[in-house]
Automatic annotation (TrEMBL):
<dbReference type="InterPro" id="IPR019138">
    <property type="entry name" value="De-etiolated_protein_1_Det1"/>
</dbReference>
<dbReference type="GO" id="GO:0031461">
    <property type="term" value="C:cullin-RING ubiquitin ligase complex"/>
</dbReference>
<dbReference type="GO" id="GO:0005634">
    <property type="term" value="C:nucleus"/>
</dbReference>
<protein>
    <recommendedName>
        <fullName>DET1 homolog</fullName>
    </recommendedName>
</protein>
<dbReference type="GO" id="GO:0016567">
    <property type="term" value="P:protein ubiquitination"/>
</dbReference>
<dbReference type="GO" id="GO:0031625">
    <property type="term" value="F:ubiquitin protein ligase binding"/>
</dbReference>
<dbReference type="Pfam" id="PF09737">
    <property type="entry name" value="Det1"/>
</dbReference>
<dbReference type="GO" id="GO:1990756">
    <property type="term" value="F:ubiquitin-like ligase-substrate adaptor activity"/>
</dbReference>
<dbReference type="GO" id="GO:0032436">
    <property type="term" value="P:positive regulation of proteasomal ubiquitin-dependent protein catabolic process"/>
</dbReference>
Length: 592
């Protein structure tokens, strides 16, 4: 028995599964050990396949999502496992791979082709989300405007805009469009699911141009239902309340102006002199505050005398720190953010001098806080959001290194409309939480269960040790490099929804591979002249299989990148190698 447990022989492992039980809560990990013996050890090079853009497999592995080259049609295939038998009496000889195995139709059967876009509207090929039940898929189409859209109230300036963005809820089994949701003259990050996050049946859509978080619910019947919109308003009745308050203030100001015309000028002077005497009586308090804030602190405005009432001195917007129009008020989420920062600075120490210095720092950076915009957002659970704030330039310049920019993370409860945490992107406290509870940030779908076993810092010893070595190396080389490591690590927050492959061949407790050439993340990787090796984590670290995304002979001309599409459960993978002005090379990797 002990020999079988140590052996990598597949017969020994199957026998062990029959006669012994796994420790509690480890049955899935034990079942995944069998993938060390069942690997994609054969490659079909340059497969003849339709000229489509291959996106990914669905979470349950039943469907392969593809898009046409004109970016207007959705094509869905069902994966069929290739079966063949050897001919003749002598079946022990290694025969050539059957010709039908080199055809795309032998591995996939087309279910339907659905037109999602028409005219100038195009499908975003880098966006796809599947619901937890795997019954529906969410796709996005967008229309580029011919001219720059006009400025609208509440829109952030210098933000690009799309004429129309449409989200389609499609039933994957038959291609029926169940529901749609449209956004006009807006900008949403669609590539790699950056601006959209899914948790259970909730979806958050970030409108970058209007700084609004739209929370929708996907019903089991196939319907989008509005839950809440967070941004300018935090509750459903905030807009109604502010509108009624504005109408009341307008009526009160009109009545006050009509009454003031009948008041005697002598009464006005007497009234203003009384107010002036009361305000001047606070001079000692004002001097104390000015002394604490320093001589460089500017007063927002000066009080005029009764004789100067005809030409009052209005407060300077530059001195107050408001770079917005006087008739534009802060949104609900921004007001809560500034209030939380102010209260956190005001309640740290009881020393009045230290408190005054912190408040001075808050007033000095007030405009920077007020100018923050939302970069990304994700769910932590059904009621809490992780929101990333930064500068406007960081939203537009997505290709720049996020670790070199200052950003802040906010934990927000949209049910109680309260902010629970505020962290800069160099926070060691947030880094520690990110390492220990990374799976809570990634929010894997509840079904199927293997979606929860994607390797991360919190659930995999090998990934955790590798990250610790990187931190130790940075600390030993440069004294200030650890801050850069924190920023680079926290740049992954908020996480992109469903951006990691659940394939067991990316399990770092089973296999070792070069993450510079291949990884579980949904992104292109550079190609090299040599195949990518997958080694066993068990000693003696034997070679299990290789993945070659290029041609069998090899081609060193030009720069090449490859995308990797692994089936979530089967030993099957698709690699697509692309080069400038060259046809794509599609290879199938399977077990023979």
């Amino acid at each position: 028995m002990r020999m079988w447990r140590r052996s990598d022989n597949i017969l020994h492992r199957l026998s062990e599964r029959e006669i012994s039980a796994a420790p509690p809560n480890t049955h899935i990990q034990r079942a995944r050990l069998l993938y060390e013996n069942i690997v994609p050890n054969y490659t079909v090079y340059d497969v003849e396949c339709p000229d489509y853009h291959f996106r990914k497999f669905s979470n349950d592995g039943q469907f392969l999502i593809c898009f046409s080259r004109n970016y207007q049609n959705l094509i869905v295939y069902r994966h069929n496992c290739l079966t063949f038998c050897s001919k003749g009496v002598n079946c022990e000889n290694q025969e050539e791979f059957p010709i039908k195995g080199k055809k795309f139709e032998s591995h996939f059967s087309q279910l339907y082709s659905l037109s999602l876009a028409s005219g100038s509207e195009l499908i975003c090929t880098d966006f796809f989300l599947a619901t937890d039940c795997n019954s529906y898929g969410i796709f996005a189409t967008a229309t580029t405007p011919e001219t720059d859209p006009p400025a609208r109230p509440g829109a952030v300036p210098n933000i690009p805009s799309m004429e129309k963005i449409t989200f389609h809820l499609v039933r994957l089994a038959d291609g029926t469009i169940m529901d749609e949701r449209k956004f006009h003259d807006d900008f949403i990050h669609l590539a790699h699911n950056v601006g959209i996050f899914m948790y259970d049946d909730f979806i958050s859509i970030l409108s970058v141009r209007y700084q609004a978080i739209h929370i929708l619910q996907v019903r089991k019947g196939g319907m989008f239902v509005d839950v809440r919109t967070i941004g300018p308003f935090c509750r459903e009745d905030d807009e109604l309340l502010l509108s009624s308050h504005a109408q009341g203030c307008s009526r009160a100001s009109q009545g006050s102006s009509s009454r003031n015309n009948t008041i005697d000028n002598g009464l006005v002077d007497q009234h203003l002199n009384t107010i002036q005497d009361e305000v001047l009586g606070l001079g000692s308090v004002g001097n104390m505050i000015s002394g604490l804030l320093g001589s460089n602190h500017k007063v927002a405005f000066q009080l005029g005398t009764a004789q100067d009432s005809s030409s009052p001195q209005n407060p300077s917007l530059d001195e107050v720190g408001a770079n917005v129009k006087s008739d534009q008020m802060l949104g609900g989420l921004k007001q809560r953010l500034l209030s939380y920062i102010f209260r956190s600075f005001d309640s740290q120490d009881s020393d009045p001098n230290a408190k005054a210095l912190r408040l001075k720092r808050f007033y000095y950076h007030f405009q920077h806080y007020a100018d923050l915009v939302i970069w990304k957002v994700q769910f932590l659970d059904r009621y809490h959001l992780l929101i990333k704030f930064g500068s406007v330039d960081g939203v537009v310049l997505q290709n720049s290194d996020a670790s070199n920019q200052t950003a802040f993370f906010v934990i927000y409860n949209f049910e109680s409309t309260k902010i629970l945490g505020f962290y800069p992107n160099n926070s060691e406290e947030l880094l520690l939480v990110f390492e220990q509870y990374f799976d809570h940030f990634r929010v894997a779908p509840a079904y199927p269960l293997y979606m929860r076993f994607i390797s991360s810092y919190s659930n995999n010893k090998s990934a955790r040790e590798q990250f610790r070595k990187q931190k130790a190396a940075c600390n030993s080389t440069k004294p200030n490099s650890f801050t850069q490591v924190i920023r680079r690590t926290l740049a992954a927050l908020p996480c992109n929804a469903q951006s990691h492959s659940p394939s067991p061949y990316f399990d770092q407790s089973l296999f070792h591979f070069d993450e510079r050439l291949i990884s579980a993340t949904d992104q292109y990787k550079p190609c090299t002249e040599h195949p990518i090796k997958f080694l066993s984590r068990r000693k003696p670290n034997a070679l299990k299989f290789k993945i070659n995304p290029g041609l069998e002979v090899g081609d060193s001309r030009g720069k090449r990148v490859a995308s990797f599409i692994f089936h979530p459960t089967f030993p099957f993978a698709i690699t697509v190698q692309q080069a400038f002005r060259q046809p794509a090379v599609v290879n199938f990797h399977m077990r023979r």
